[in-house]
């Protein structure tokens, strides 16, 4: 095969219409070989090319005869000195970190490890068995795609409603999705799937990891698999298992088609990305890519003993974002997904890890500095999971301007409130009104708070109100995995029941949680399936359950249909009322000459809350008036926004309370529009004057709007 020197950039395998340029970065390698194969599971090398050219630690070669669809991998030479941080082993075929497509899956064997398993020297030994036949292969892709007029939707944050969803689980059993498309990118883009999302009213899907990931050996040995996908191997390659076929590059084309279809339906695509660690694990993990290419550059190693890895993630390793090449890898990956794959934003898993310059989390670290000034990435949605497992890793409220955060304090406070815990009312008020205490002092706005009550990691909403304890026995770890959830609420009865009273209470609590989520300031995130009562039978860590336990059940019973209809009404109400999705924080004062405060807090007796009452431990009820005529907001063109005034009545007591409705202005009345005690429609109540009473059932909430009467 003819070989030319090629170019150092761009990194990866790049088809230019005439041939393919291959480029790989390794500072400490002494030699690099490019290997071409006849197929994804083949150990037969069609060609092995020694890469001779190196420019500033980048090894590169150009093959004029190579074409899209070519299967390839690398063998990298260098010292095998684990105690010095080097783990080069040319017997191990390696995935290109910049591969745009990865075909095949790992066939686990001891040969996948760079050391001799069972040797007394453990990882200090070196295994020289060739693993090519067990490794997936990198694939050269054809980047051309007919996007038409597709572009990023740029939905404003205040109108954003996020739906966290698993690509496979969403349609794996959907009866209205063609069998061949179920559980795939194409399935998520199918008319039935899009119809559900549009009817619900969400504006963005947040996809659990779709970067190519590894199915762990220890899970396979237990008859399980990695379902969630937080075990990334390829930061540029869409997960091939979600494509309808194994044709080279098909996953790329289908992913792009999915994005284009969702954009056509007005739905943004946000990716849950895992740049904090890789699938190679700790010092006893396999050698698949980064470890064999340049271990000491890609990973954070223990300073006094670089044989071992710094682990802020609980997954064995942490990517070394202090290294310029590793930081470049992350930034190149992010830009690729925006510019070439048209995604609208990212949610960064364990984002505190990316902020660790030395050991402590530095919210103004290099990673954030680079993103902040980047003309592409600074303009998309950036969401942090603001914690990791290292010391000082819990950083809710501490990320820079331009970033939104999963607000874990919102989740915990709202759960405590609806469980009936005392002493929550002051904290509840902050969380409900956008968490100005967390974000308002640093120049951020209410949309910095991504409000959520359930997510993939933990109970579903149905299970949150049905179980007091996790039931993860199916995971094969003796129910020791997953967090103990002390903020659940189950009416005193665990699991399934036929008791109509218990069932009604559970259904009401689900409505309560969904209602407060959609009524709160900030950006709501619905955990996919909560709107139809999805259950995992008490499993709050279903990361390894690629089966009906995790998949959506689309055979909806009466309760599920009612909950879906209720969720649709809530999302529609949020979009209808600007006062529920303000761009700025409430001031708690009269604005622009308005007769009333922009937000006011009342007791159930109709009196404004006093300082003493805010500090009372037993207060479990609250009335909140959101003044639509005191909105100091403008639309995208700078025009003032007006809206209706709403009154929200909250009762977390187990018994009913009669709320005295506060006065507002002359000639207006309060009209009930929503009550979580009702599964269908609001109570048949005539409009009420200030001073009259509205009865709120125990553990429920009601919403009333202000209507002018003639």
How would you describe the overall organization of this protein?
Among the domains are: 1-143 and 203-406, Immunoglobulins (Immunoglobulin-like); 587-708, Golgi alpha-mannosidase II (Immunoglobulin-like). The protein is elongated, with a radius of gyration of 27 Å. An 8-stranded parallel β-barrel has the order 12-13-16-17-18-19-20-21. A 5-stranded antiparallel β-sheet has the order 4-3-7-11-10, with no helix packed on it. The protein is built from 15 helices and 28 strands. Helices cover 20% and strands 19% of the residues. By secondary structure, it is α/β, with parallel strands linked by helices. 52% of the residues are buried. A hairpin with a 4-residue loop joins strand 8 and strand 9.
Outline the secondary-structure elements.
Layout: E1 12-15, E2 20-25, E3 31-37, E4 45-51, E5 53-55, E6 58-63, E7 71-77, E8 80-81, E9 86-87, E10 101-103, E11 137-139, E12 162-165, H1 167-171, H2 185-188, H3 191-200, E13 204-207, E14 211-213, H4 217-221, E15 232-238, H5 250-264, E16 268-273, H6 290-298, H7 324-339, E17 345-348, H8 366-373, E18 381-384, E19 404-406, H9 408-419, H10 425-432, H11 436-439, E20 449-451, H12 461-464, H13 500-519, E21 523-527, H14 558-576, E22 599-602, H15 611-614, E23 621-626, E24 646-651, E25 657-660, E26 668-675, E27 693-696, E28 700-708
Parallel strand pairs: 12-13, 12-21, 13-16, 16-17, 17-18, 18-19, 19-20, 20-21
Antiparallel strand pairs: 1-2, 2-6, 3-4, 3-7, 5-6, 7-11, 8-9, 10-11, 14-15, 22-23, 23-24, 24-28, 25-27, 26-28
